[in-house]
Amino acid sequence: MKMKLCVILIVSTFLPVNSVFVYKFTELVGCSDSVDEPILLYSLDRNEIVFEDYKANNQVSRLPPFADPVHFENLYDYAISKRDNCIQTIENVTATIGNQTENKVPPDCSIYPKHDVVPGEKNNFICFVTNFYPPHIKLRWMRNGVFVTEGVYISQFSINSDGTFNIFSTLTTTPDKGDRFSCMVEHQALDSPHSITWDESMEPPRLTPSVTPTVVFAVGILGLATGIFFVIKGTCFR
Ligand SMILES: *[C@@H]1O[C@H](CO)[C@@H](O)[C@H](O)[C@H]1NC(C)=O
Ligand SMILES: *[C@@H]1O[C@H](CO)[C@@H](O)[C@H](O)[C@H]1NC(C)=O
């Protein structure tokens, strides 16, 4: 399938007063003439703040629960105008220079559980897919070779400085002993769907108990030494 895609990036950087922190605020607008999935999202550094859900006519905050929520006024109307403008840009560019073949970059994929897997205990499996272009991609989950949709979450895109994209998906489920979880990735730069699988053999070896007390002891000694240093410093160098 041939797909033309237009991505417009408006990147601005600002420096807060009296601070050494520099944040990069990004507005990402994307559209395609072959896939009806426009994108409008805002991010601060590489953390997504909010995206527009075009189908639900709703802006979706992506901040963690402890952060103050942000709300953009009239974002839907703005998003629609950006989408139309983006589609018009594709038409204009195509009319001028014809259909261009795009550089396609296949994704790097990894899969891992959020917590150590204990059969019968709820967990999240994460499928992390990075550095691909164009952004259109399909992710699906399988449990023991059977597709599952329940408990699946798919993130929005994040963009890298080289113009490639990242995305991740999570599957929230309670694994049983011997379960295999696979993430299947379909992308134009891959000849066929690519599937990566997690099973018990991928669990990292656990720390043997004999190691832990030594580490705790060493940290304790270091803490004691630091304490003594500050006591001496406080007493002698006033
Ligand atoms: C596309 O081309 C039309 C006609 O030349 C022009 O009016 C319009 O502004 C262009 N739109 C974009 C988004 O470049
Ligand atoms: C570009 O490709 C589309 C189909 O994807 C075709 O309809 C159109 O005529 C092509 N335009 C040019 C200028 O080659």
TrEMBL record:
<dbReference type="InterPro" id="IPR007110">
    <property type="entry name" value="Ig-like_dom"/>
</dbReference>
<keyword id="KW-0393">Immunoglobulin domain</keyword>
<keyword id="KW-0472">Membrane</keyword>
<dbReference type="Pfam" id="PF07654">
    <property type="entry name" value="C1-set"/>
</dbReference>
<keyword id="KW-0325">Glycoprotein</keyword>
<keyword id="KW-0812">Transmembrane</keyword>
<feature type="transmembrane region" description="Helical">
    <location>
        <begin position="211"/>
        <end position="232"/>
    </location>
</feature>
<dbReference type="InterPro" id="IPR050160">
    <property type="entry name" value="MHC/Immunoglobulin"/>
</dbReference>
<dbReference type="InterPro" id="IPR013783">
    <property type="entry name" value="Ig-like_fold"/>
</dbReference>
<dbReference type="InterPro" id="IPR011162">
    <property type="entry name" value="MHC_I/II-like_Ag-recog"/>
</dbReference>
<feature type="signal peptide">
    <location>
        <begin position="1"/>
        <end position="19"/>
    </location>
</feature>
<dbReference type="InterPro" id="IPR003006">
    <property type="entry name" value="Ig/MHC_CS"/>
</dbReference>
<keyword id="KW-0732">Signal</keyword>
<dbReference type="InterPro" id="IPR003597">
    <property type="entry name" value="Ig_C1-set"/>
</dbReference>
<feature type="domain" description="Ig-like">
    <location>
        <begin position="107"/>
        <end position="197"/>
    </location>
</feature>
<dbReference type="InterPro" id="IPR036179">
    <property type="entry name" value="Ig-like_dom_sf"/>
</dbReference>
<keyword id="KW-1133">Transmembrane helix</keyword>
<protein>
    <recommendedName>
        <fullName>Ig-like domain-containing protein</fullName>
    </recommendedName>
</protein>
